[in-house]
Design a protein that fits this description.
Blueprint: H1 4-14, E1 20-23, E2 33-36, H2 41-50, E3 58-67, E4 70-82, E5 85-97, E6 100-109, E7 114-122, E8 131-133, H3 143-153, E9 156-158, H4 195-202, H5 207-212
């Protein structure tokens, strides 16, 4: 199979207005991925599926990634006028990189028996810009996996044929795989609380039941 940079070059020629970026992977697996802007994601996936040399016709898994806001220190130079002379000073300032969510697709070719090509889609932020296009119209096998990512990370997949919670109940309000998720302590839907779950649940029992237990 072609190297990812070659695939990116050919995809750029096919979709000249698409924003494409190769994201390095510093882990031992060393599997770089291809980041595609949401506006061109469906067209890019369709090209990857239909290109004769690639024929990436199978999505093995769809996963979510949460990248919270990142606070970091950065050194910079400021200029000040002291006693009539301009002087430079090194200072350290605190900056914040806004976070985002990602949907990650692992694509293989059953026809050519090669892969994977890893495709990434990135939301605008983690708050109110969490929509991405669904790739289910291109890869039917992505349907349940996109539902799982929606359920656990909160990414809303537009044009998904049946987007609803898969693991959590419909009334659940949060997204359990977000890195800032706060586990509840009342466990109102836990039918048989036990061990540390029971200890937390007892805080919400009526006083009479609490003392009787």
């Amino acid at each position: 199979m072609e190297a990812l940079d070659q695939i990116k070059t050919r995809l750029s020629a096919a979709l000249p207005t698409a924003r494409l970026e190769i994201v390095a992977n510093p882990s031992p697996a060393n599997q770089p991925s291809l980041l595609v802007d949401p506006a061109h994601a469906v067209a890019a996936a369709r090209w990857l599926r239909d290109d004769p040399a690639l024929r990436l016709d199978y999505v093995s898994n769809v996963t979510g990634v949460d990248w919270p806001d990142l606070t970091f220190q950065e050194k910079t130079v400021v200029k000040k006028v002291i006693d009539g002379q301009e002087q430079e000073f090194d200072v350290t300032v605190q900056k914040v990189r806004p976070g985002w969510l990602e949907a990650v697709y692992h694509l293989y070719s059953m026809h050519h028996k090669h892969g994977p090509v890893i495709l990434r889609l990135r939301t605008g932020n983690r708050q109110d810009k969490t929509r991405l296009p669904s790739l289910t119209p291109v890869y039917r096998g992505a349907e349940f996996q996109e539902r799982e990512v929606y359920d656990l990370f909160g990414i809303v997949f537009e044009q998904h044929p049946d987007l609803r919670r898969l693991l959590m109940w419909d009334e659940f309000q949060d997204f359990p795989l977000r890195k800032d998720y706060q586990e509840p302590d009342d466990y109102q839907y836990e039918p048989t609380p036990h061990d540390d779950v029971l200890d937390k649940a007892r805080r919400h029992y009526p006083a009479a039941i609490h003392h009787a237990s």
